[in-house]
Amino acid sequence: MMMLQFTDPTKLKTRKIVFEDIFAALDPCTLEQLKELSSKRRVIEETINETSSITEAIAREIYGGLTSQSEQDLHKLKQYLPLLENFIFHIDAISSNRQVMYWVSNLKIQWTTAIGGSLSFLNLMGPKYYQVGNIRFELGMILFLYGATLRARAYEISTEALVQSTTLFRDAAGVYLYLSQEVLPSLQSIDAGKKPPESMSSVASVMSLICLAEAQVVAIKKAEERKATVGLLAKLHHGVTEFLSEATSILYSGSGEVRDVSPRLFGYISSFKCLHELRSQRYLAKSLQATGQAGVSIGILHEALNRAKEINPGEESWRLIIKEEIDIVSESLEKLERENEFVWHEKIPSVDELPLPQGSKIVNAIPYQPLRYERQLIFKI
What we know:
It is built from 13 helices and two strands.
């Protein structure tokens, strides 16, 4: 079972931050920790900006034999995040100080967008950098990248390590849920046009739902391996579409927060949903045919194909996967129609008379637990 992929969320860029150049440390220990914070971030900067001079062989040695780029990237992010959490903890404690507010604004935290609607202009003008004078902007963007990297790793192993892949997608869903509920609300007062979509709670909620849909797809592969009934498979595939319907309703809610989201994200969700509607209806038709309801099965397949024709996948790889599914459904329909013509002679019900599909959602987000290195930081204020 082929899986649609959408890797755009990993394609973020950022500009350099040197914490020790902005924040005045009162003691050598604090200065060293600021330098470590800058060093761990620099590794991430060089990776996503594609400016690193480290060879693949050296990278494998540095990261304990890890050969996967996404695994190495996760390692880098896991080293930076606890330091950043500790830095924010100490900044929050003295945030009322004017000097501290001045330092934070001078960090010049700058990130591009990977899923913004203005992406089509990048080749002409170069990437647009958003600058937000709030340290939680940095945390939000790093966590967004972390969730995207978890998804990338889940994609890599989605054909051979099904349980681990499902877990990674669920982990990513938990990261995005934490982002939407705990981190990004503090940026809500900033005008939507002055920050990237990745820093918006509604977009993080959409990403969480997408990750859950992807986790369920991999879980379905496991169910197929275990020879699950066609009735159960129909419900599981429809469960995927329910996650995506919820994501779609957020995107089309009219919220100003999501007005600048890339059409590719909309296209991915609609294509993803179309594919699993087709699969759900195919399995539902099979289950009904087994109980002697050939006419209803024909009606279901007809309607599934009609709905699929309304979707225009934006990417060739998505189009090919959906076309393959359409071909399977069309072949099943032709066979059923021939058999009905010569054997069963059942009436084909109208669309209004067809049974409504039922969904079953069997995955949930794994809660993200932020880790903070508890180290004392003392600033000269």
